[in-house]
Specification:
heterodimer, A: mainly alpha, two-stranded antiparallel sheet, 31 helices, 46% helix, flat, B: alpha/beta, Alkaline Phosphatase, subunit A, eight-stranded mixed beta sheet, two-stranded antiparallel ribbon, 12 helices, 14 strands
């Protein structure tokens, strides 16, 4: 084989192995007895699936932290952080595993990434395996080095060049093995950083936020309100221990479910499907999808008569609202499934297994099932009361063809078979359901297939060389062997003109694709009608499902996805970044285990994550200068700029009324402020551009304008912002008035910023100086109006008196506070 | 607040991308009395034909083997050193190849035979936008050049779609409507009116002073790295947003019909106001798996018209000499038609450049009669089957970085492309190998 061909083959081999590793489910701690449509997962005798440690930080270090056992069984940090992290895991493991292409080799390694309960044991095993092959010699040279260079008929060819960082690490490892000396403290990593086997716990030196501040963050984040007096009291007494009960109550509130829908739409983007909402239901199968047209007041009227009913007519307004509500309900349906499952403490696996859909009085009319369901609704006029139901197998419009179904019902499989979900990710004659497979992996297993896209030497040549590259060209087969069988499971949902969802391909499913199936098992013809139910059941058993769901909640609460593993092994901060990654992963896996144990109750994930140190960390005890530590904590802390929706909710919570301009369609600020439309714009912006800075200034000015004078116009006991002060209290007059102003500032700091300042806090002093500075400037300025401003300070059309300029000064103060990081971020 | 103070403030904090790294070009343009940061060019525009263009319909015509049904071999046109597909007879709107190359051929550099390496939209888009296939972390060229040259201006990196990762180096700005900018221009005025301020001037000044004082106080304190970065970004975003008022005079009175022209107007107004470094302009639906010729003859002329609109308006606004334009797509299309008269994904394609410092009227590289790539000698840029290299996006990005003078910038090095010296495309963009 020519050199270049050999390299291509090597790349292909490594890529294939990597994909198999990533795309094959593993079942940590579980022995699965699995059939296509029946399954059982049982714990092996004597083995527990419960977690060893619940506190991140206790188990956040590399396996090197475990020093029990004889010397030969102790994993040293050089092996863990250098040999394994930079070479073994990234290169050797891809093939040298029990399922890999080198599974027949004696040099077999274990994946340390997936099963945290066996990680230390796996690492020990791997170190011993490396030591053995390092010590074995061929013509006075270590077999490990010879193999890495592609000698001794290494099946993977040359995987490391002799001048590469990885190879140098192996050379060093071989030397240390030969001298039988463990690398330890005082030695250094390849990067030059000292090997330190006594690494302090990850969260050492990091400060957690107080329970009171945590409470505020939680209520604002999850239900868009400030904490209640009772909640504050509970937290003041019991501290963090009170959070469990608080969260239980919070997650009963309707606002939580609205937040949950928003969060899952950010992930699934189902609201963004093309076309009018009811086109999720096909013309072919749903005769009543346009049921509302019978309610059209203009129906049957002559053109002249129609003129008597303009859109401004109350009957037309009511009709327009009815149509809008129907469409909103239709678009919302997949998210209603999410909320139904969580609200009722059902296993969240039902998002892929539910044998029902959610319908409202309005959408049930579109499905044609209203008559049979109407008694089950509490209020048939409530367009957003959703209940679960099953729809019957579909019948063509002409009544001649009925969807195959042993049960007589549509084979619902949660979101997998949702009309809206499938319409959001349509198929075509070229993608043949592969887009849906990609989304399946992303949404339900947490894997981005396109991230894994392997480079090939000449993709065009491959495409031209083979009749069916996806089945014949090894570079293509790597992915398609995994994707295409799953694409085949969606074969009955193959309407390519966008006019429906259900409908098998007329010519039968493609034969130039790998056969429909899952995990190497072909789909049986008689089971085809419920292929997505099979996919759903298998997905629910896959441990990656639980991890993916925790990652979704992580994204919801922290506003960003978990960090990716570092890629550059020459980066001096590689070890630090890898530790940061691993600690996050460990925490996600820990919560995933709790989630699984709790029968996939998603509320458990919220509770675990809220109480996690990753959510609570709030600061540093002391300055951190050491670069490695800085790299480790680079992503730590929520520190999330509020989305337009979150900011609106916060404004409503604080001021008691909505501002609205951030989400108002007319204002068109939502996309400018980093929001999404679920269709074209699907990623929220996390950092403010200058345009967003301008919107923040507009918001601060306008919200202060609308609220300060209005608040002062109320009796003190009804005020939200200024219950303890009047406009005649002027700074600098006497100590009592100054103290009263400071107390008001402390109050505003708590209300707006969530700060709990003392009167002598420097930030209180700064705000005081702003207030007093404005008043003094006004005093020194000739010709100022003694009334408040025309635009901001009018009540019932009359400008409020402001002889001391204190009204306008307080408005300046509120504007200042609304522009603060503590208000605009969480 | 004097801009000098702002620079000092952020610099002292060592704060992420709000720190005006790469100030040289800004500093040169900055006059003593200018308070708010202004970026004076060069400006970078990346046109993206989203979905995968058919290069045989544009700059790499093929008249044999029915690779393109719109024309025969003998009908292929030339304009200077360019070969182009004849399209005038096939289009209903937009700009024909004939007109485009006649008008811009002398400024246009074409590279044919670009190897995208894979043929899926998502990785190809990422690869073409960043020069890195196997990483989700890398910034696009447009984001990188914005971060290096002017991250402190309020709309440093504008994007209208396509892959737009910033590498956390610079905030991304989306401005979907032209009139959005005028709404933001006077954030301190009621309904955007400068005549009706929310606060008296001295109050606004006091608020700004308090925010500055707060920022200074925070710099000396101990914070998590994320807190430090975000505080700095927020402060910079609000402070620098005032520069948006400079955009107002350049907002056109009327809005063009074509979306690409609307994007161009927003970018040009922002460039002219000195509030933007780079813009990612996007035109979609090139993915012509069905009825390739119909789709491509709709999209390509629309795109060419958009490019022409940008350059024409830039000329009028005296920005033309400061523009660097990259015209790209994430993949090409197969040399054969499928049964739906469409063309599927093809991993070989082309890229075009024009603008300041780019030596035009050149065609580098080639594809053969089956639309396979012909390697290029990186020294001579001539096709070289024996010793040539397969030009991939990292080679293009490496050349772009060098051309923009940011290849040694810390941000570029943080996201290095690791091109061996022997593979650097010498003089790709400017034959004399001089940057801008």
């Amino acid at each position: 084989m020519k050199r270049s061909n050999a390299r291509t083959a090597t790349r292909r081999l490594l890529t294939a192995c990597l994909l198999i590793l990533l795309l094959t489910p593993c079942r940590p701690g579980l022995t699965s007895v699995s059939t296509a449509f029946g399954d059982a997962a049982v714990s092996p005798p004597g083995e527990s699936t419960s977690q060893e440690a619940s506190e991140p930080g206790a188990d956040d270090r590399s396996p090197v932290a475990d020093h029990r056992g004889p010397e030969c069984l102790v994993v040293d940090s050089f092996f863990a952080d250098e040999v394994w992290a930079k070479v073994g895991e990234r290169t050797c493991l891809k093939c040298h595993n029990v399922k890999g292409d080198a599974s027949a080799s004696e040099f077999l390694l274990r994946d340390t990434a997936h099963d945290r309960s066996k990680r230390v044991e796996a690492m020990r095993h791997n170190q011993l395996a490396f030591q053995r092959v390092a010590a074995a010699q061929e013509k006075s040279e270590s077999r490990l080095l010879l193999k890495a260079r592609g000698n001794l008929d290494h099946g993977g060819g040359e995987v490391l060049k002799a001048d590469s960082t990885g190879y140098r690490i192996l050379e060093r490892f071989v030397r240390s093995t030969a001298s039988r000396r463990r690398l330890r403290s005082g030695d250094t990593h390849a990067s030059g950083l000292p090997l330190n086997e006594q690494i302090p716990p990850f969260f050492d030196g990091l400060q957690m936020m107080s329970p009171r501040r945590l409470l505020r963050r939680v209520t604002l984040s999850l239900v868009g309100r400030l904490p209640s007096k009772q909640e504050r009291g509970a937290v003041d007494i019991d501290g963090l221990d009170a959070m469990e009960a608080v969260l239980d109550d919070v997650m009963q509130e309707e606002a939580f479910y609205e937040r949950l829908q928003e969060a899952f739409n950010d992930i699934l983007l189902t609201r963004g499907y093309d076309g009018v909402a009811e086109t999720a239901l096909s013309y072919e199968h749903f005769k009543s999808r346009l049921w509302y047209q019978d309610r059209d007041p203009r129906k049957g009227l002559s053109p002249e008569e129609k003129k008597e009913l303009p859109y401004s007519h109350p009957r037309m307004i009511a009709y327009t609202k009815l149509v809008a509500d129907y469409r909103e309900g239709m678009r919302r349906e997949p998210l209603e499934l999410v909320t139904y499952i969580v609200r009722n403490d059902r296993p969240f696996t039902e998002i892929v297994t539910a044998d029902y859909i959610m319908v409202s009085p309005y959408t049930s009319k579109g499905y044609g099932v209203f008559e049979e369901l109407q008694d089950k609704f509490n209020d048939i006029d409530d367009p957003f009361e959703f209940i679960p139901t099953k729809i019957k197998a579909l019948i063509n419009r002409n009544g001649r063809q009925t969807q195959e179904s042993e049960t007589g019902f549509f084979p619902h499989a949660g979101l997998l078979s949702s009309f809206q979900y499938l319409k959001r990710y349509p198929t075509s004659e070229t993608n043949r359901n592969r887009l849906r497979v990609r989304m399946y992996f992303r949404h339900f297993l947490g894997i981005d297939l396109m991230q894994l896209a392997p480079r090939v030497n000449d993709a065009a040549a491959l495409t031209a060389k083979y009749e069916i590259p996806t089945m014949q060209a090894a570079d293509c087969v790597v992915c398609h062997k995994i994707m295409d069988p799953i694409a085949g499971l969606y074969q009955d949902y193959y309407v390519v003109d966008g006019k429906g969802i259900y409908g098998p391909r007329k010519e039968g499913w493609y034969e130039d694709m790998f056969s429909p199936g899952l995990h190497g098992e072909n789909l049986q013809a008689e089971q085809r009608w419920r292929s997505l139910q099979w996919l759903g059941k298998e997905t629910a058993k896959d441990p990656r499902f639980a991890v993916a769901m925790v990652q979704h909640v992580w994204y919801t609460l922290l506003g960003r996805r978990p960090i990716l593993p570092p890629e550059d092994i020459d980066d001096p901060m590689f070890v630090a970044r890898r530790r940061a990654y691993r600690v996050q992963q460990d925490e996600i896996e820990r919560i995933a285990s709790r989630f699984t144990e709790a029968d996939f109750n998603l509320k458990v994930v919220f509770k675990e994550l809220v109480q996690s140190k990753f959510y609570r960390v709030d600061g540093l005890a002391t300055a951190v200068k050491e670069p490695r530590r800085v790299a480790e904590i680079d992503d730590v802390g929520v520190v999330r700029m509020l989305t337009p929706e979150q900011l609106e909710r916060k404004l409503t919570a604080v001021f008691g009324k909505k501002w609205g301009r951030l989400i108002d369609r007319e204002a068109k600020l939502k996309i400018l402020y980093g929001g999404i439309d679920s269709k074209e714009v699907t990623e929220r912006l996390s950092d403010p551009s200058g345009a967003m800075g301008a919107i923040q200034r507009i918001m601060a000015n306008d919200v202060a304008c609308k609220n300060v004078a209005a608040d002062f116009a109320l009796p003190p006991e009804q005020r939200r912002l200024f219950p303890g002060i009047e406009l005649n209290v002027v700074p600098g007059e006497n100590t009592a008035s100054d103290q009263q102003i400071r107390r008001t500032i402390v109050y505003l700091h708590e209300l707006l910023l969530g700060r709990f300042d003392t009167l002598d806090n420097p930030s209180v002093q700064r705000t005081y100086e702003l207030f007093s500075g404005i008043v003094n400037d006004a005093k020194a300025t000739q010709g100022l109006d003694k009334r408040g401003s025309y635009y901001c300070d009018r009540i019932d059309g009359k400008r409020l008196d402001d002889p001391n300029y204190t009204l306008r000064a307080w408005r300046g103060v509120v504007t200042f506070l609304l522009r603060q990081h503590e208000f605009l971020y969480e | 607040m004097q801009r000098r103070d702002f620079v000092k403030l952020c610099g002292a904090a060592g704060l992420g991308f709000a720190a005006p790294v790469g100030l040289s070009s800004v500093a040169r343009a900055e006059s003593a009395e200018t308070e708010l940061p202004s970026y004076e060019g060069p400006y970078y525009v990346v046109f993206n034909a989203s979905g995968g263009w058919d290069t045989t319909c544009l700059m790499d015509p093929k008249g044999v083997n029915e690779m393109n049904r719109l024309y025969k071999d003998g009908e292929i046109l030339t304009e200077g050193n360019h070969r182009l597909a004849p399209t005038a007879a096939h289009i209903e709107r937009g700009m024909s190849n004939e007109d485009f190359f006649r008008r811009h051929g002398n400024d246009l550099l074409v590279l044919n035979g670009l190897d995208y390496s894979v043929n899926n939209h998502s990785p190809c888009s990422r690869y073409m936008a960043t020069g890195k296939l196997d990483s989700l972390a890398y910034p696009t060229f447009a984001a990188l050049v914005a971060a290096c040259n002017g991250s402190e201006v309020p709309l440093a990196f504008l994007t209208f779609g396509n892959y737009s990762s910033t590498g956390n180096l610079v905030p991304m700005a989306r401005v979907p409507y032209l009139n959005s900018l005028s709404r933001l221009a006077n954030a301190d005025g009621v309904s955007g009116s400068a005549r009706n301020p929310y606060h008296d001037d001295f109050v606004t000044d006091r608020i700004e002073q308090a925010l500055e004082s707060q920022m200074k106080a925070r710099i000396g304190k101990v914070h998590l790295p994320r807190v430090e970065r975000s505080q700095s970004m927020l402060y910079a975003a609000q402070l620098n947003s005032k520069a948006l008022q400079r955009v107002t005079p350049y907002i056109p009175k009327s809005t063009p019909k074509e979306n690409l022209s609307q994007q161009a107007d927003i970018a040009l107004a922002s460039f002219k106001a000195g509030v933007c470094v780079s813009a990612n302009l996007n035109i979609g639906t090139f993915d012509s798996h069905k009825d390739n010729d119909t789709d491509q003859m709709n999209r390509i002329p629309t795109m060419l018209a958009g490019i022409d609109y940008l350059t024409t308006k830039a000329e009028e606004m005296q920005l033309r000499e400061k523009l660097v334009i990259v015209i790209q797509s994430e993949m090409g299309r197969t040399p054969t038609y499928n049964k739906n008269n469409g063309k599927d994904h093809w991993s070989i394609g082309s890229v075009m450049f024009m603008g300041r410092g780019i030596k035009g009227n050149r065609v580098i590289g080639a594809t053969d009669e089956k639309q396979f790539l012909v390697p290029i000698n990186p020294q001579s840029l001539a096709t070289d089957m024996e010793k040539g290299i397969r030009v991939r996006p990292e080679h293009i990005h490496s050349a772009l970085r060098e051309f923009a003078g940011i290849d040694t910038h810390a941000f570029a090095e943080k996201f290095s492309l690791d091109i061996p010296d022997a593979e650097r495309l010498h003089g790709l963009l400017s034959q004399d190998d001089m940057g801008t």
